[in-house]
Write a structure and sequence with these properties.
It is a single chain. With 274 residues, the chain is α/β, with parallel strands linked by helices. It has one domain (6-269): Alpha-Beta Barrel (TIM Barrel). Helices cover 36% and strands 19% of the residues. The chain contains nine helices and 14 strands. The protein binds (5S)-5-amino-3-OXO-hexanoic acid and zinc ion. Residues 13-14, 82-84, 86-87, 106, 108, 114, 120, 144 line the site of (5S)-5-amino-3-OXO-hexanoic acid. Zinc ion binds at residues 9, 12, 46, 48, 82, 84, 106, 227.
């Protein structure tokens, strides 16, 4: 079976220090969390950035500052910035990190409720616009799908030339407004992507580790991190993103799955090194 790529979603846009004091806001904290995840076995860092007070931002300068600082410490890691940003941001605001030299970025493939009054808006035209930008810039999109309909959307837009094969999906499961995180939800998504695609699974909250286990068994890849879940086990806060990654590494070892290095991940995802 292919080596296991572990992505660490270290920061997110919504999770706060009130949820877990180790959630990073400053550049130094973001570097600390990226390094802890990498040292534990992550080869990809899914990056959101914040201002020092925790406010989410897609500011190009802040992204550059964080990426440069991470790369100074762990030069070979793959950085996968968010183009989702936070609910309510404009398309052009969200796209700012694609102006930097990056290998991958998220491409959210549909609109969904995001808890309370929040709606995470990704119209068909937004997805086309983001897809074209990534093709022009040679950025491999991670197709974030929060529901089955978003796989359909991605495949429809691929036929129109806005997204190129081979596809790499991220099944984000258990969002309050998206698909659930049970086995049947997983098999439904997993059975709905074209042959030759890769996928990773990001289980929200209590779904994080059960879904990681299913993906390890199935030959998929895994995303963990504070963006999705702040607990190491029921009622026990993780001290770092590295602790969450280390738990996945232990699970993979028990199941005989080797862990991918960043260069293994580049080969599996078909991306060229910067
Ligand atoms: N913060 C969410 C509204 C992504 O990174 O592309 C969107 C998100 C998805 O986190
Ligand atoms: Zn994200």
């Amino acid at each position: 079976m292919e080596k296991l790529i572990i992505t660490a979603a270290i920061c997110g846009a919504e999770v706060l220090k009130e949820h877990n004091p180790a959630v990073p806001y400053t550049v130094e904290e973001i570097v600390r969390e990226a390094k802890s995840a990498y040292d534990a076995g992550a080869s990809v860092i899914h990056l959101h950035v914040r201002w020092d007070d925790g406010t989410p931002t897609q500011d190009k300068g802040r992204f550059k500052e964080c990426i440069d600082a991470i790369k100074a410490v762990i030069p070979d890691v793959i950085i996968l910035p968010s183009t989702g940003g936070a609910v309510g941001m404009t398309d052009d605001e969200r796209l700012q990190p694609t102006e930097l030299d990056i290998e991958m970025a998220t491409l959210d493939c549909g609109t969904c409720n995001f808890g309370g009054d929040d709606v995470f808006t990704n119209t068909e035209n937004t997805i086309k616009y983001f897809g074209k930008r990534m093709i022009e810039r040679g950025i491999k999109p991670e197709l974030e799908v929060f529901d089955k309909s978003m796989i359909e959307m991605a495949l429809r837009l691929a036929k129109k030339g806005s997204i190129n094969a081979p596809f790499h999906f991220d099944f984000v499961m258990g969002v309050n407004g998206g698909i659930g995180g049970d086995i049947r939800d997983f098999t439904f998504l997993r059975g709905s992507i074209p042959a030759g695609s890769t996928y990773t699974v990001a289980g929200i909250g209590r779904y994080e580790f059960p879904l990681a286990m299913l993906s390890i068994i199935d030959g998929g890849h895994v995303r963990v991190g504070f963006e999705d879940n702040v607990y190491l086990s029921k009622g026990v806060l993780a001290k770092s993103n590295g602790e969450l990654v280390a738990k996945v590494v232990r699970m993979a070892k028990e199941l005989g799955r080797e862990i991918a290095t960043p260069d293994d991940a580049r080969q599996i995802y078909g991306i060229k090194k910067q």
